[in-house]
Design brief:
The protein has 436 residues and is an alpha/beta fold. The protein has twelve helices and 14 strands. The chain has helices at 19-30, 47-64, 78-106, 110-124, 134-147, 268-271, 277-283, 294-299, 309-326, 331-351, 379-391, 416-433, and strands at 8-9, 70-75, 127-131, 155-160, 193-197, 199-200, 205-206, 226-230, 247-251, 262-267, 356-358, 369-374, 394-395, 406-409. It is globular and about 80 Å long.
Length: 436
């Protein structure tokens, strides 16, 4: 039976965790800090649980330098749950802004206000999605599904990268080709929000930086859309200017911890700008289910219902480990390491182009999920590659079932030595596969 140190795991999620965190977690699962209770047993209302929440939140704020304008929520449902939460909460913000506008112009005539907002909702509501991979596609589809009772046409796919890449994901087209909804100030309908997935795990696509065309959106003005980013699979792998986003969310099971926890960073003004459930229902929109309702979760310190305290503690241990490892450099240090590990793998792939073909265009290559094919997708060769890798205890390299191929996930907890091991194997395999 192999030891943990002998196995190099590159699974896309659940992903590897630091061994030190797992070892400490094993003790906490049985007897947390000599309390005689497991962290999985204690009350989520206890002082211990509240301290776990506070400490984890503090570590995240330190790592990302989250400004006071934003709050941190711990939620259930994973990234997929937030596909829905984004729509419920931000459509509510859009409706409330329109209600206030109508009320200011029409005075106290509630019926006229209601009729106007109802009409504007059906004619003007637009949600912009940048679709660059499987997860942003799923998010846009969920939004369309939730709004279908109102009709069609509310979802504006401002970018579908498949259209410029032979029907496949793998690129991020130039920003001047994006078809973002025109703002109201410029004669358009305006968008409730702009949504994108910062790193696509299935397709190996990552935005190299914050989109320039979203840099100067007047986010603190009623005319400006809110920028939303799914960072589930590159969370805490590089520095992020949180102030540019209305919402950032991520499932924990890639770079943060184990399943059961979803982190949401949301601007506080969004939490206080929500239409009432009765008004939403009157104009024809569903109100948010309570477990996806950001203001309710924030008001209850993420403890509206029973949260998995053990999972939150694990996330906190991972974060504190990053702070300890990189010191004052913080995420700049982790970013350098992530870049170094990714470059090692891409260098091998680029060295043998007749054997390996990277799925993603060079400008959109993910640092977290390195996706490639062998000899143009030769299934026999790819099967052999995976079998030989498994024999060397290089595990989790099979591509997503929807696209096939090979995928090496380079999350934070994957040690540099393991990346070097798989790189050596890739080079050896390529040498043996080269034509005589």
């Amino acid at each position: 039976m192999p030891s943990r140190d002998e196995v190099a795991y590159f699974g896309a999620g659940p992903a590897p965790l630091p061994t030190a965190v797992l070892e400490k977690g094993a003790g906490a699962f049985v007897n947390f800090e000599n309390t005689g209770l497991s962290l999985a047993e204690i009350s989520h209302r206890s002082q211990t649980a509240n301290k776990v929440l506070a400490d984890t939140k503090s570590a995240l704020i330190s790592l990302l330098q989250i400004p006071d304008t934003h709050d941190v929520l711990f939620m259930h449902g994973g990234g997929s749950g937030e596909f829905s939460a984004v729509v419920f909460n931000l459509v509510s913000v859009w409706v409330e802004k329109r209600r206030k506008e109508a009320e200011a112009e029409l005075g106290g005539d509630e019926q006229k206000v209601l009729e106007r907002v109802r009409k504007e909702l059906r004619e003007d509501l637009r949600l912009d999605y940048l679709v660059t991979g499987s997860w942003s596609l799923k998010a846009s589809q969920e939004a369309a599904n939730l709004l279908e009772p109102l009709g069609k046409g509310f979802i504006n796919v401002a970018l579908d990268s498949r259209q410029s890449n032979d029907g496949k994901f793998g690129t991020i087209p130039a920003e001047d080709t994006w078809n973002l909804t025109t703002s109201r100030a410029n004669g358009g309908k305006g968008s409730a929000f702009v949504y994108y997935c910062d790193n696509e795990t299935v397709d190996g696509v990552e935005f190299p930086s914050f989109p320039k065309c979203l840099e100067h959106l007047p986010q603190n003005q009623d005319d400006g859309p809110l920028v939303v980013a799914d960072m589930s699979s590159n969370f805490l792998s590089r520095r992020v200017d949180v102030s540019k986003y209305a919402v950032i969310f991520g499932g924990a099971q890639k770079n943060i911890g184990i399943t059961d926890v979803t982190l949401v960073i949301v601007r506080k003004d969004i939490l206080s700008t929500q239409a009432s459930s009765s008004f939403l229902h009157a104009v024809g929109v569903w109100s948010s289910p309570v477990v996806l309702n950001w203001p309710v979760i924030a008001k209850n310190n993420s403890l509206y219902n029973t949260m998995p305290i053990f999972s939150i503690w694990i996330a906190g241990e991972v974060m504190r480990g990053l702070l300890t490892t990189h010191g004052e450099r913080g995420l700049a240090g982790q970013e350098d390491l992530a870049n170094q590990k990714a470059q090692i793998l891409y260098d091998v792939l680029d060295k043998f182009p007749e054997v390996y073909q990277v799925v993603t265009s060079r400008a959109a290559r993910s640092r977290m999920n390195i996706c490639f094919r062998i000899r143009g997708g030769d299934s026999a060769q790819e099967k052999t590659f995976l079998e030989y890798a498994e024999a060397q205890l290089l595990q989790g390299l099979k591509g997503h079932r929807s696209v096939g191929g090979i995928r090496a996930s380079n999350y934070n907890a994957v040690p540099l030595k393991n990346v070097e091991r798989v790189a050596t194997y890739m080079e050896e395999f390529a040498q043996k596969s080269k034509p005589a």
